[in-house]
Amino acid sequence: MTDRTHPAGGRILPIVLSRAVATVGRIFGVLREPELGAPWFADWVSDVGNFITFVAPAVYVHDLTGSATAVGFALALTEAPRFLIGPFGGLLADRMDRRGS
Fold it and tell me: For a 10 Å CB count at each end of the chain, is N or C smaller?
């Protein structure tokens, strides 16, 4: 097949991939700077920990009960403080003086 008859154009895919790799390299190249890379890595580690903290109780409850309903109830209970206390925190923050007096 020649380049004209190939649906993808023959040589187009390697060019697109090389541009994509170069773009990703430019974007993430910023992380080589310690001032940006270290906090980004710390945030990533924190996100992994948050994910594990979210998933572990669900796995544990499923191992104990074998019930999807119990897993859903357990996950709802872990989010309940945000839904119950969050609006009051927002109300308090709105009523506080922001000028720091």
Answer: C
Encode the chain (101 residues) as per-residue pLDDT tens digits.
Answer: 444 445 555 566 667 678 877 787 788 787 788 888 889 899 999 999 999 998 999 999 999 999 999 999 999 998 899 899 999 999 998 888 877 75
- The 3-state secondary structure of the chain, one letter per residue: CCCCCCCCCCCHHHHHHHHHHHHHHHHHHHHHCHHHHHHHHHHHHHHHHHHHHHHHHHHHHHHHHCCHHHHHHHHHHHHHHHHHHHHHHHHHHHHCCCCCC
In 3D space, the residue among 70, 48, 50 whose CA is nearest the CA of residue 59 turns out to be 70
Q: What is the pTM of this model?
A: 0.55
